[in-house]
Amino acid sequence: MKLFLLVTISLCVLYSQAIHGIVINDITVPNLVTISRNDSNDTINLDCDYELSDNEPNLLVKWFMNNKLIYQWIRGHEPAVLPYFRDFIELSKTSDEPDHEYRGLTLTNINIQLNGTYRCSVHTGAQYKSMEKDLHIVDISDDEISFNDRKVQNETHLECTVSNIFPKPILTLVSDNPNTVITMDKANVVLRENAHFDASLTAVAQNADGSDNFDCYVSFEGLPFNISAKAEADELNENADSGALNVNTQTVVNILFVIVTLLMF
Ligand SMILES: *[C@@H]1O[C@H](CO)[C@@H](O)[C@H](O)[C@H]1NC(C)=O
Ligand SMILES: *[C@@H]1O[C@H](CO)[C@@H](O)[C@H](O)[C@H]1NC(C)=O
Ligand SMILES: *[C@@H]1O[C@H](CO)[C@@H](O)[C@H](O)[C@H]1NC(C)=O
Ligand SMILES: *[C@@H]1O[C@H](CO)[C@@H](O)[C@H](O)[C@H]1NC(C)=O
Ligand SMILES: *[C@@H]1O[C@H](CO)[C@@H](O)[C@H](O)[C@H]1NC(C)=O
């Protein structure tokens, strides 16, 4: 009798640990993708990590963006991309296992139209499970940031502008002196025709001793990412310098080539 109970209990435990239908462990959708000038990431991989109970007769995996179907795969068939999304999906095999072959996809031609909520849904004959995550795209590939601080008597007048950036920027003017009071005006934000934004912000700082270092930060609501106007300016200068260096090297090589050619004749 005891043995019988033990066997029954063990079987129950085993049974409840086996997968019933579908379990989605997680989906891979990067929370933040930045498109920047020097960025070589031209694709984003999305994956849907699920487990199925054995011998599910049917399997259908779908991906949605902002509740619109963009992709689907029926086990044993080729995956299909919805026509309006064809330019943005590169078909790629996720796995060699038949249950997982085309469960994920690769986004390509990354641009701000791909910002949104992505959902993977997994269907078997009897069941259906889904999971979704947000993909935030920040486009700083063609932006311009300018920042000015101008002393006027015992005040400093600050002005920061950013143009052609996505999504909507939040500008913040800061000082390295915690005692300096900065009075900011209301930021002016304009939506451009290309769905990017321009913004500007002015402020007055009361800093009698005049030794403050000011900066302007561009951030985005809810995103762990910001740009410092000063750092951006430094980086642009650096790039300009290395550009100049390249030109010089090239010029030297050309001159040497001319000299060598002349010497040969
Ligand atoms: C570029 O891809 C790598 C690896 O795929 C990832 O770690 C990184 O976050 C990506 N960069 C951006 C800006 O998306
Ligand atoms: C690319 O830009 C980022 C900031 O946008 C910078 O941190 C990084 O050093 C740059 N990489 C190269 C190779 O220039
Ligand atoms: C980008 O996508 C996220 C996730 O769906 C959304 O919360 C956010 O509002 C979108 N941003 C813009 C500017 O549409
Ligand atoms: C700045 O100067 C003005 C007058 O020139 C004065 O009224 C004001 O109190 C000064 N502010 C500070 C912070 O010293
Ligand atoms: C900017 O981001 C850094 C981390 O990268 C953070 O420490 C800082 O507080 C942020 N500044 C602003 C003004 O958002």
UniProtKB/TrEMBL annotation:
Lineage top rank: taxon: Eukaryota
Annotated Ig-like domain residues:
30-136
The secretion signal range is 1-18
Return the InterPro entries for the record.
CD47_Vset, Ig-like_dom, Ig-like_dom_sf, Ig-like_fold
Q: Which PROSITE patterns does the entry mention?
A: IG_LIKE
The UniProt keyword set, sorted, is: Signal
Instruction: Please report the name of this protein according to its UniProt entry.
Output: Ig-like domain-containing protein
Q: Which organism is it from?
A: Stomoxys calcitrans
